[in-house]
Design a protein that fits this description.
- The longest helix is centred in the first third of the chain and has 11 residues, at about 35-45.
- The N and C termini lie far apart (about 35 Å).
- With about 240 residues, this protein is of the alpha/beta class.
- It has one domain (about 1-235): Metallo-beta-lactamase, Chain A (4-Layer Sandwich), CATH 3.60.15.10.
- It has seven helices and 14 strands.
Length: about 240
């Protein structure tokens, strides 16, 4: 599957559009200001968008979920443990949320709205396959519950081709769990160091050639992160707290 990325004006959050030209597609993490670009991309590629997926409920990844889902006529899917964040995007971010709310109030065009059609991801035993069908084709991703940054953080795994590199293989859309040479912060409400450590141990077991498309910043690979990212390198060798 082709993966195209649009960058939000808020904190440079990445929005990924997953789907081959003329076929079914999903939009992952529509941050502030991406709606117009995503709709143009969808129209030019002839994509049949079937859903909006959320890696986690922080507002820099969900701000345009409502307008985009309404324009496309599709539901928004989020893990059950992050569902509450869509209803209260600023309060669930603590002091950082208050800063973002003040910024939003200064720009009426940037007002956040809760999506009207939200579906809870049915992730059984921390993992599930999610498939969205269109006439004659489907788009399928593997949803991996990956708490630590938030309670309901989700990594989406698939096979695809990225728009900025010649890659055709396993891809992980990691949201704010794993970045190039870093990881998501755990000091915001819902963050959990122990949960993050368990999540990183799982990600360290992904095939080394897996391309990582994070929620902010450049693409990387699991192999590069096992070499250069001290957090993932430590997780690979950590044998403690396996429950």
């Amino acid at each position: 599957m082709q993966i195209r990325t649009v960058t939000s004006v808020l904190l440079g959050a990445s929005c990924h559009v997953v789907g081959d030209d003329g076929g079914p597609a999903v939009v992952v993490d529509p941050g502030l200001g991406v709606t117009s670009s995503v709709l143009t991309l969808v129209r030019e590629a002839g994509l049949d968008v079937r859903a909006v997926l959320i890696t986690h409920g922080h507002v820099d990844h969900t701000w345009d979920a409502a307008p985009l889902s309404e324009r496309l006529g599709v539901p928004v899917h989020v893990h059950a443990r992050d569902r509450h964040r869509l209803a209260d995007p600023f309060g669930t971010l603590g002091p950082l949320g208050a800063e973002l709310a003040r910024a939003a109030s200064a720009d009426p065009g940037a007002e956040y709205r809760e999506p009207s059609d939200v579906r809870v991801l049915d992730v059984v035993e921390d993992e599930a396959e999610v498939t969205f069908a269109a006439p004659g084709a489907t788009v399928t991703l593997r949803a991996l519950h990956a708490p630590g940054h938030t309670e309901g953080s989700t990594v989406y795994l698939l096979r695809g081709r990225t728009s900025d590199a010649v890659v055709d293989g396993p891809v992980a859309l990691t949201g704010d769990v794993l970045f190039a040479r870093s990881i998501g912060r755990t000091d915001l409400p819902g963050g959990d160091d122990a949960a993050m450590a368990r999540t990183l141990r799982r990600l360290a077991l992904l095939p080394p050639g897996t391309v990582v498309l994070p929620g902010h910043g450049p693409a990387t690979t699991i192999a590069d992160e096992l070499r250069d990212n001290p957090y993932l390198r430590t997780a690979r060798h950590d044998r403690s707290d396996r429950t």
